[in-house]
Predict the structure.
Amino acid sequence: MAVESVEYQGRRYAEIIWSDTSVAKTTFFSPPESSFQFGLLAHEAGFVEPPHYHQEFERRITDLQQMFVVQKGVVVVDLYADDGSKIRDITLRAGDAIVLIHGVHAIRVLEDMQCISVKQGPFLGPDKDKVIVEVKS
């Protein structure tokens, strides 16, 4: 299945990296201007990356994107448009990953799951970080 982009009315809502995706060399799927960069690292045996660090510089980020990597179980991610209408649901299993780029999302756990979750910080706490939204059924 590879990588799938979820777009609605010209806006990107999510990117999915299915577990069976394979690349021959390191490939990033997010646009270079995105505030959250994601992709797959791939190198042949014997590759050595020299010791390094990433230069510090001020970045201005106005959006918050989140990535889930499913380690075990089954989880459904529901995506909603800005008006609260449902765009689609996406069933993820072990090895699948999704980057939530825009819009309202919800999760439903079908089988006990564990996911790695990555998002920009700092985390300001659930009272400031999450906005609960009424959606259309």
About this structure: Residues 86 and 100 are 15 Å apart (CA to CA). The first strand starts at residue 3 and ends at 8. The chain is about 5% helix and 45% strand. The helical segments are 126-129.
